Amino acid sequence: MPMNFKQTDEFTKDFKHYFKRYKTLLDDIEELKKVLNIQPLGIGRNFAVITKQNNVTIVKARLFCRSLKKNSLRLIYVYINNCNSIELIAIEFVELYFKGDKENEDHKRIKRYLRG
How far apart are CA 74 and CA 66, in angstroms? Predict the structure, then answer.
C-alpha cells in the first residue's frame, strides 16, 4: 500500500522558496518518496532519527538535489505509524533547508508540530 504523503504550510513555503533556485527539486522529492514508500525511516547515513514519541518519529534526511551537484538539502519529516489504522500511516514533510543558508533544523518548528 502506498504511503500517504502530506506537508505542513511552512514546508510548502520552504519548497516554493527553494524551487525557484533548484528546478529539479520536485523530481528529487518524488525520488525520495519512492525510497520512503519502501523504508519510511530511510536507509543508510543520509537519514537520522531526531526524536521519537509514541507512534511519531521525526527524521532528518539529506535530500539529494540534482541542481545542487555535490551539495544536498535537508528535509525534516514526520513518520506517523498508528498500527491500529492503515489510514494513519503517513509521512508529513515539516521543513526543507539548505545547509549553506542555515546550520540546523528549526527545533521550535518541530516542537510546534509535536504539540499539534
Answer: 14
Q: What CATH number is attached to the domain comprising 36?
A: 3.30.2310.20
CA atoms within 13 A on the CB side of 84: 2
102 burial via Cβ count (<10 Å: 0-12, 13-18, 19+) = exposed
3-class DSSP state of 31 = helix
DSSP secondary structure letter of residue 88: G
Which grid cell sits at 80? Answer: 506517523
Q: Name every residue whose Cβ is closer than 8 Å to that of residue 47 and which is 6 or more positions away in sequence.
A: 41, 59, 60, 61, 62
pTM value is 0.90
Domain range for 99: 4-115
Q: How large a percentage of the chain has pLDDT more than 70?
A: 93
Domain count, the chain: 1
| Gap between the Cα atoms of 54 and 80, Å rounded | 9
